[in-house]
Amino acid sequence: MIKGIVRKANTQIPVVNATIKIEPLGATLYTNSEGIFKTRRIKSGNYNLYATCEGLDMDSINVIVRANDTISLNFKLFTSKECLEYYPLAVGNYWEYHFTYEDKYYSLEVVSDTIINGKRYFTIFQNFFNNPSLNDFIFERIDTALGVVYRYDQYFLVERPIDSLTAKIIQTFSSNMLYNMDRPCLSSCYNIEQKFVFGEVRKIKYFRHICGTDLPEYHLIKGIGFGGASVPRGFLPYKLKYARIKGVEYWE
Q: Which domain CATH number covers 116?
């Protein structure tokens, strides 16, 4: 069984009628007048729980449920959706990356939006400056209620999550950010820190894929987006050199 309480951050005020979603179970619960929720019996497994409420930020917790366990959780919701700033999807936004090992560049630009299977996606043009044959379009959307980013693959005709923007350190979640879309993968948030990026101190979240060996790591920069990728041995395939977010330019 999983039970818990949802409060406003930095206070003890309970959040009434907050929505609790349990993935991949697909179950939805609501908090009572005291901000409390409780599941019935739940099978052993690994679950992500998301707490949301209109007008507040979301929070998420990863749990491993074993037979006859009773797990108690505490969610804290802030008054703004700060997590969405880690992945700013909007038409006109642009990112340019440098492949340091080959001195090559590629860019991502949100050029439009479109409807696929009844869902609104942003269309992103992927431009490889030195090899135009690799150029392609990718399609992404954000579930703003849960802070989950999804990508639709036009070849496998499947949508998979690529990031959980609410993830905390050591939290594991479904993610195909840098992994083939033919089967699901997992990522884990292994560090959150503040660093000087593009002229100011920014919060950065670090992730690594954990569904195999020697898989990529990547990071998201608050207010900027995807910052680059590397692998566990320290090799840095590419890093962000320039970005244009909501008309504002950033560069090293």
A: 2.40.360
| pLDDT 10s digits, 56-73 | 878 888 898 988 888 999
On whether both 138 and 190 belong to a single domain, the answer is yes
Phi and psi dihedrals of 84, rounded to 5?
-65, -15
**Tens of pLDDT along 11-56?**
889 999 999 999 888 899 999 999 999 998 888 988 989 998 887 8
Interatomic CA distance for residues 245 and 248, integer angstroms: 5
* Cβ count near 238 (within 10 Å): 19
The token duo for 134 is 């690799």
Rounded Cα gap, residues 36 and 27, in angstroms: 16
162: left (phi over 0), alpha (psi -120 to 50) or beta: alpha
| Residues listed for the chain | 252
- Rounded to two decimals, what is the model's pTM? 0.79
User: For residue 96, which amino acid is it?
Assistant: E
Closest CA to 163 of 141, 191, 135: 141
Q: Which domain holds residue 13?
A: 2-80
Whether 21 and 75 map to the same domain: the answer is: yes
Give 39-89 as a DSSP string.
-----SEEEEEEEE-TTS--EEEEEEE-TT--EEEEEEE-SS-GGGGGS--
Torsion angle of C-alpha atoms 59, 64, 68, 74, degrees rounded to 10? -20
- Tokens representing 18 are 């907050």
| Residue found under tokens 């497994």 | 45
Structure tokens at 187: 């990522």
- If DSSP codes are grouped into helix, strand and coil, which group holds residue 233? coil
